[in-house]
Amino acid sequence: MLSPGNKQYQPPAADEVEVSIFGPGYGECVVVHIGNGDWLVIDSCLEGKAKRAVALEYLESLGVDVASAVRVVVATHWDDDHIVGLADICRASVSAKFVCSAAMTSEQFESILATWRLRSFLPGG
Fold it and tell me: What is the CATH number of the domain that holds 54?
């Protein structure tokens, strides 16, 4: 597979649906062109060398304006191997809707975020 930084990628035509799957074998990221220049991103993982969200690397290599073209960002579940880099995707995708499983209540989500924030400030976090 070509790396996302490779300029050999060509954007899909407006009437084409494209599904691209990236990942190291766990915690894959799926990037979907749903037509007319609109995209959705499912989960996240990091590109090896850059340690950057692979979805951002790929979309930018196509010349996609992530801020306006990504319509939906999906988190299938909150395991580290599915969300690493997801915050960067959400920050860059300002026009996108964020969706996650209804199986996770608001209180559970807030608890996970609080734990993650605390862990990121602790030594070794």
Answer: 3.60.15.10
pTM of the model: 0.75
Is residue 85 in a domain? Answer: yes
The edge-to-edge listing of strands for the beta sheet with 29-35 is: 18-22, 29-35, 38-42, 70-75, 97-100
Q: What tens digit of pLDDT does each residue of 79-104 get?
A: 777 788 899 999 999 999 999 877 66
What are the pLDDT digits (tens) for 99-120? 987 766 677 777 777 776 666 5
Alpha helices by DSSP H, listed for the chain, are 54-61, 66-69, 80-83, 86-92, 106-121
Residue 70: C-alpha distances to residues 94, 96, 106, 108 (Å): 8, 6, 24, 27
Assigned domain for 37 exists: yes
Report the first-to-last Cα separation within the chain, whole angstroms: 32
Provide the number of structural domains found in the chain.
Answer: 1
Residue 40 belongs to domain spanning: 18-121
Residue at 7 is within a domain: no
d(CA 93, CA 56): 9
